[in-house]
Amino acid sequence: MSFYEQSQRILSPVKAGYMALTFVLALLFNLLPWLVLTFWCVHEPRRMGIGAAWVLGLLMDAGNGALLGQHAFAYAVLAFAALSLHRRILWFSLWRQAAHVLVLLLASQFLMLAVRLVAGGVFPGYAYFAASVIAAALWPAATYLLLLPQRRPQGLDENRPI
After folding, report:
1. What does the alpha-carbon distance between residue 142 and residue 147 come to, in Å, rounded to a whole number?
2. What separation in angstroms does the CA of 89 have from each of 1, 11, 56, 61, 96?
3. Which of 32, 78, 127, 142 registers the highest number of CB atoms within 10 A of its CB?
4. Residue 71 has what DSSP assignment?
5. What residues contact 109, with CB distance under 8 A and at least 6 apart?
6. Which stretch of DSSP H or E encloses residue 91?
7. pTM
8. How confident is the prediction for the chain on average, in pLDDT?
9. Measured distance CA(145)–CA(54) in Å, rounded
10. How far is Cα 135 from Cα 155, in angstroms, rounded to an integer?
11. Whether 107 contacts 77, CB under 8 Å
12. How far apart are CA 143 and CA 103, in angstroms?
């Protein structure tokens, strides 16, 4: 039985404040914010969009001292791709979702690298792409942790008022 086919997995809507908190934590710890962005674009496409990705990218540019717009452009393209493919990605198991996310994250890093090289930067080496592989490997754990507040307690009947 797939992770999404379980009858106990009835999720309540996520709160916008919780989504904002996850972004703040990702920015504070510089903990792969593109993974959190991809996650919310896939799981909450109506609440997360390209504009939020652009703002997050500008914050990352300012925080990392990068070329202004480098992360913003890549994050906006990443959000567009994740929003376009969110139904397809959610169809698969968590590890197959991680494979889809890996492709999206690598494409995002290639865009950031292209902007960096066009602006006169140097190639950082192939270890630069290790972050995408690590982020994709963290996808199942991120899914569990970020959806934790949405889970309903076991034993609640859907038809009975709370």
Report:
1. 8
2. 17, 18, 23, 28, 8
3. 78
4. H
5. 74, 128, 129, 131, 132
6. helix 70-91
7. 0.78
8. 86
9. 24
10. 34
11. yes
12. 17
